[in-house]
Amino acid sequence: MAATDASRAHPDADADELGVRDWLILLTLCGATFVTGLDFSVVTVALPEIGRDLGFTNTGSLQWVATACLLPTASLLPLFSRVSDLVGRRRLFTTGIALFTGFSLVAGLAAGPAVLIAARVGQGVSAAMIAPSAIALMTTVFPEGPQRTKALGVNGAVLSLGFVLGTLGGGVVTAGLTWRGSMLILVVIGALVLAGAMALLPRTIDTRVAVRLDIPGAVLAGGGLFALVYGISTGPEAGWGSGSTLASLAVAVAAFGIFLLVERRQAVPLIPLGLLNRPTVKWSGLIGFITLGMCGGTTVLLSLYMQDVLHYSALATGAGFLAEGVTALIGGMLADRVIGALGKAGAMATGLVVQALGTGTMFLLPGTNGLAILLVTSGVMGFGHVLTVVSFIATMTSGLRADEQGVVGGLSQLPQFLGAIGTAGLAAIVTARVKALSTGTSPTLALLGGLHAAMFTAGVVCLVGAVLAVLLLRRPAA
Length: 478
Prior knowledge:
By secondary structure, this protein is mostly helical. It has helices at about 1-10, 20-55, 60-85, 90-110, 115-140, 145-175, 180-200, 215-240, 245-265, 275, 280-310, 315-320, 320-360, 370-395, 405-420, 420-435, 445-475. It is built from 17 helices and no strands. It is globular. It starts with a helix and ends in a 5-residue tail after the last helix.
């Protein structure tokens, strides 16, 4: 069905190559991915400057600038994944972009913490509309095969570009420029994406499914994800054994358990359990969780290494991620060729092995003069990570009916939010190792030892993921 829709929209398109209009549509969809990724990374790095400018009283309240956007995005993804099938993906995509642009303007003009956090909540809700509909549009416009793989590769490359520019932009902000300028840049990009979507995306692509929305499933899935992400986000500060963290995680487990029971009785469930149990969906999702969790967690560790061991400034730390971003761009652009040569499962396994090589060898990072090996190892990690991301999304979105694209599009985005579990796990390893080393060495060397242990562990986890990709996904889906 996806191929039929795509050929109707592009009757003269070659089976393997993208035409000019194809590229314009792809850049429009990728622009949405870029602007949401840029938003999260630039705000995370710029938090200290935002706190000083708006008068946040403490670090805990300031952290809500990031969390207020993350929580609604993660918790509302399943809901909007299904809504995209009900109201039309093009309609939900354009609505999401318009709202995101408006809330970015409000954020950029915010005069106090309350207005900024409210605007961040709006950005998060809007991002939850954009993420599943953008992927669903991409897999609908571009037929399964070389065109779709190339489109997903470009999308992965653009997402990495957003991360790199966001960290650099955040560094520039903390170096003396205003953080409000970054919000206004989001407004400009959002307006361009909205104009492109209105002009380029054909209205015929807005197929709808005439079914009722599964409200109980949406409440349970959203509540469970909200509680899970909240517990992971606040756990490091509140303490993993604190009552609030344990209660949040318990609520998440209970909500997910009830969700599975309720969905079995729904005529049209929010997420069909048969679809969720499909090998290409569940095992690819697991691989996505591994690669995103280990890469995201290692990136946080690299930031600690640059700032607390090498004593880099915020701007220099942002620049330190350039190699990771550049090789990720290359990986995204070459992903379709690698998948064509090795197959999706082979490319996934290869990407994880490369990621493991880059991540695991970070235990060689020295206490001084570590720039060269930092650039090499992070660059290798970035290439392998993006290759894995493109491969797992291409696998998840293969062999689907038109009415399944929205749901799976949302599911393919969940690992990047649940990947925070990996970050928390690696951080726990750092803490335990630092505590063990603190009595016999300096605080800096103890931290370096903790980072080495966590980075090596991340490499091992990626190798395990590569083995799982070969064992669980080597056979094509029926």
